[in-house]
Task: inverse folding
């Protein structure tokens, strides 16, 4: 069937905006990454790969930033996936209580990062915070901490906040995945006398792999992009201990006006994200089975 | 069994306690919060913080800005994305596939990657300190995900419907508005909710492009309260409640759609 040429007009507004405000900046990030542009003056010079050399060999804060990002990512991915899956297995049936609980667990997802940041700043507050008060109440005051002020643990405190923020969303994805598993398979497993663990291992888990792929991939990417939360809670401090790549780009570009250098970090960031996405899908896809 | 119930309760409390504390703190004074952070306020609830925040801040202005930006960003993203998705699913050839690839490429690029060049572009175009600027950037950066979700849906629509309407003499535009849009309503509403949450809560773009109080949206204004009120949690939480109210109220009534919409965004994003 012939389709009228007017179909091209449907792309016009979307393509114009997308090209101007998305594709063009993405490409110019690559361009500026080879310059020493400060973002303000008209003039700049090409510096070859100097910015990249600096990032990898001369900038200890950037290297620390990558480490922080990995700590944050691993903590979030592990805890968020375990919490989401464990609770999804409990609230899988559509009973009234379960539907209510799912909605409650999902609730933080609709809040803004700034709101979540304030709530958790109060929870972590060293003097009047809920967490330290609770610890005191159950006689564990020696564990009381300056949760966001201690450079050794601040990044993990942020990771826990991120899990609180988004675990409910991942839980829903797991519930959807679990509900799609045909009931008969469980019945067969039961008849064959499989234990609970065996059933999970050979029925639930293999069939859950697609949902697990999505959860792990999404959580990883999300943890790299957690700019808002980190920016609002610690601003990267204390002593750069919670600086992640995204907040560092902001810092370099808008606080020390090194647009060229910030662009090169952006490009590295983009490559890391692309690599992780690719690897995860490759690794997890091989697990997929169908019955 | 008991352990399961206990775990469910603990998780529920981890969500409920902060909510209750935020609500309670907003009706307490600063002194009460310092002396008894988790206790009930002496002598009943006081709504002074709510009055104060509207007196000290241009709250109504921030609220209005957020509303304008969100409404225009959501509706225009939906319209433009639906048009693109319709185009791709109708063409069904290499050009369509290439355009689909081009748009979905955008889902791989985090917003933070383009913040530097985007900032200078906005400056050059005179679009900083402008709600129009924010709306244009919002549309452009959320088009990829919206195009992705909507194309997936529109490709499942039966071809026969379009062919029948061609025979009836309907042009592309007619087919789009009379066939594609009405049939895509479930997917459109899920995407709308996803975009609604994203745009209402966005911090990055206002942070980059807005310095003038007259154009600030709620998340940015809220962030700056921190500088102003420091650890005055009663005031901060009053701000949190006002900024989250529309989203929370919508969530209570449209819960199922929220869950579906935001999850669609995650699964497909």
Result:
């Amino acid at each position: 069937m012939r389709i009228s040429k007017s179909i091209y007009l449907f792309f016009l507004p979307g393509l114009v905006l997308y090209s101007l405000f998305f594709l063009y900046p993405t490409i110019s990030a690559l361009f500026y990454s080879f310059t020493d542009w400060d973002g303000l003056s008209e003039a700049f010079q090409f510096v070859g790969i100097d910015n990249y050399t600096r990032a990898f060999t001369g900038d200890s804060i950037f290297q620390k930033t990558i480490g922080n990002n990995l700590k944050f990512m691993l903590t979030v991915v592990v805890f968020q996936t375990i919490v989401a899956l464990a609770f999804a297995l409990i609230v899988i049936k559509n009973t009234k209580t379960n539907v209510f609980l799912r909605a409650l667990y999902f609730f933080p997802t609709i809040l803004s990062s700034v709101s979540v940041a304030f709530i958790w700043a109060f929870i972590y507050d060293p003097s009047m915070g809920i967490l330290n008060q609770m610890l005191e109440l159950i006689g564990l005051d020696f564990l009381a901490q300056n949760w966001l002020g201690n450079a050794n643990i601040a990044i993990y405190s942020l990771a826990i906040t991120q899990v609180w923020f988004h675990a409910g969303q991942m839980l829903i994805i797991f519930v959807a995945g679990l509900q799609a598993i045909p009931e008969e398979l469980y019945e067969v497993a039961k008849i064959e006398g499989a234990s609970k663990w065996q059933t999970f291992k050979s029925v639930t888990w293999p069939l859950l792999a697609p949902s697990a792929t999505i959860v792990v991939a999404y959580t990883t990417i999300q943890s790299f992009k957690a700019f808002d939360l980190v920016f609002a809670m610690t601003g990267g401090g204390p002593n750069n201990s919670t600086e992640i790549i995204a907040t560092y780009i902001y810092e370099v570009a808008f606080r020390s006006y090194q647009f060229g250098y910030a662009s090169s970090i952006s490009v590295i960031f983009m490559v890391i994200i692309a690599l992780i996405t690719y690897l995860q899908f490759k690794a997890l896809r091989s697990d997929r089975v169908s019955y | 069994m008991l352990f399961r119930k206990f775990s469910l309760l603990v998780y529920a409390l981890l969500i409920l306690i902060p909510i209750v504390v935020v609500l309670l703190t907003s009706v307490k004074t600063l002194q009460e919060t310092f002396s008894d952070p988790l206790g009930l306020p002496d002598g009943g609830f006081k709504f002074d913080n709510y009055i104060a925040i509207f007196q000290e801040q241009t709250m109504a202005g921030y609220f209005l800005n957020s509303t304008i930006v969100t409404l225009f960003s959501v509706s225009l993203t939906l319209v433009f994305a639906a048009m693109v998705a319709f185009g791709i699913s109708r063409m069904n050839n290499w050009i369509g596939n290439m355009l689909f690839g081009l748009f979905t490429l955008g889902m791989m690029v985090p917003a933070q990657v383009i913040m530097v060049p985007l900032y200078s572009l906005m400056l050059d175009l005179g679009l900083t300190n402008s709600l129009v600027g924010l709306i244009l950037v919002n549309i452009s950066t959320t088009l990829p995900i919206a195009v992705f979700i909507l194309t997936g849906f529109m490709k499942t629509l039966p071809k026969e419907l379009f062919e029948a309407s061609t025979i009836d003499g309907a042009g592309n535009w007619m087919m789009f508005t009379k066939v594609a849009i009405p049939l895509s309503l479930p997917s459109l509403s899920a995407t709308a909710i996803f975009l609604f949450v994203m745009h209402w809560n966005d911090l990055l773009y206002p942070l980059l492009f807005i310095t003038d109080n007259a154009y600030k949206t709620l998340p940015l204004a809220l962030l700056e309260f921190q500088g102003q009120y420091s650890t005055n949690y009663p005031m901060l939480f009053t701000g949190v409640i006002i900024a989250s109210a529309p989203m929370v109220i919508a969530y209570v009534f449209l819960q199922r759609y929220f869950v579906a919409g935001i999850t669609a965004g995650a699964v497909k994003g």
